[in-house]
Amino acid sequence: MDFLGRQKVLRDELERRKVDALIVTHLPNVRYLCGFTGSAGVLLATARPVFFTDGRYSEQAAAQVKGARIVIAKGGGQVAAAKACGRLHLRRVGIEADYLTVSQLSSLRQELGKEVKLLPLSGVVEHIREIKDAAEVELIRSAVELSSRLFRPLLRSLRPGVKESKAAARLEFLARQAGAEGMSFETIIASGNRSALPHGVASNAALPSEGFVVLDYGIVLGGYCSDMTRTVHLGRAPAKARELYAAVLESQLAGISAVRPGATAGDVDHAARQVLKRAKLDRFFTHSTGHGVGLEIHEPPRLAAKNQTVLRPGMVITIEPGAYIPGECGVRIEDMLLVTGTGYEVLTPVAKGLIELS
Ligand code: ZN
Ligand code: ZN
């Protein structure tokens, strides 16, 4: 991983904003910038970066942290970083406004001298992270491949009477056995009328003998997340269910086709939403079309209505329209895509035709 290159990009961005340093507290950002994977650490990103952690992580920090001096601090990394700002004569210091609590902010203020101006900043490192470098794309590919290999075994555990939670447990066991570091979010297995819940995490409900099952899951590998959804049908799907499935699939394919560098996130959302509108299903499509994926499961850009973010090569996004008929059933289909120089590459290799499990 090119940590020094990333730190340079951030430094240039801070310079552009006339900021002397950024106190990086959001752990995925810390990891992205210097390689530290532990649960407590703060990076003071400035001309000469300093990484602060506590005694539990001295060995791990020495092994992992690149491009920053390591300081083992007693009173916690944030206080130590604030104190360092005074010593280093930094005057305009940015903080990650989306990730500091009120009490953390007040203790930072106490440690910083009057001469230091605190600047609440939002999404600075996240914006840099939107474009994945080659090493990141490789890790994401590996995560997507591993999770895709688990799809067939997952289908084998879907039988009427089996609890959603049991099918999820088996999937998660197989994921860890196959080398996943964990799941990238709580596994969604939503069957029967629960499939109408866009976020129906696996419950104690038993799978019915007939009906849709929404399967939305992902794993973490090398720190990077995967995310995919398939919806299958237990028993033969009646005509109405087939129509719903076909409309969502058409919407998903339209969303994918709209992905190219230069298009806005809103354009892609519009393309997917239009198909469901024509099928008079748009009022059942209650979430956005997709999101960025990387070190975190949900990252910018958000592929939502009117979002003006311009897609650029190297972005990794999901396309995941769905339609959810309250109390009845729902369908969602989700792939991960890489935005390329000329268009897109669908990373998820799992087929999308309707699967009926007998
Ligand atoms: Zn998903
Ligand atoms: Zn997703």
Description:
The termini are far apart. Helix content is 35%, strand content 23%. It contains eleven helices and 20 strands. The strands form six sheets. Strands 4-3-2-1-5-6 form a six-stranded mixed sheet, with helices on both faces. It has a four-stranded mixed sheet with strand order 8-9-12-20, with helices on one face. The structure holds zinc ion (ZN) (2 copies). The site of one zinc ion (ZN) has 5 residues, from loops.
Helix/strand layout:
Blueprint lengths: L2 H14 L4 E4 L2 H8 L7 E4 L4 E4 L4 H7 L4 E4 L4 H11 L4 E5 L5 H10 L5 E5 L2 H6 L4 H16 L1 H6 L7 H14 L4 E2 L4 E4 L19 E7 L1 E3 L2 E2 L2 E7 L4 H19 L7 H14 L11 E3 L6 E5 L12 E4 L2 E4 L3 E4 L2 E5 L4 E3 L9 E2 L1
Parallel strand pairs: 1-5, 3-4, 5-6, 12-20
Antiparallel strand pairs: 1-2, 2-3, 7-10, 8-9, 9-12, 10-11, 13-14, 15-18, 16-17, 18-19
Helix pairs in contact: 4-5, 10-11
This protein binds zinc ion (2 copies).
List keywords for this structure.
alpha+beta, 358 residues, six-stranded mixed β-sheet, 23% strand, four-stranded mixed β-sheet, binds zinc ion, elongated
Which ions and ligands are bound to the chains? zinc ion
Distance between the termini: 46 Å
Number of distinct helices: 11
Main β sheet profile: 6 strands, mixed
Q: Helix content range of the residues, please?
A: 25-40%
Total strand count, please? Answer: 20
Average pLDDT across residues?
96
Note the quaternary state here: single chain
What best-fitting shape do the alpha-carbon axes yield? elongated
The amount of beta strand, in percent, is 15-25%
Strand order of the largest sheet: 4-3-2-1-5-6
- CA gyration radius, whole angstroms: 23 Å
Helix/strand-derived category reads alpha+beta
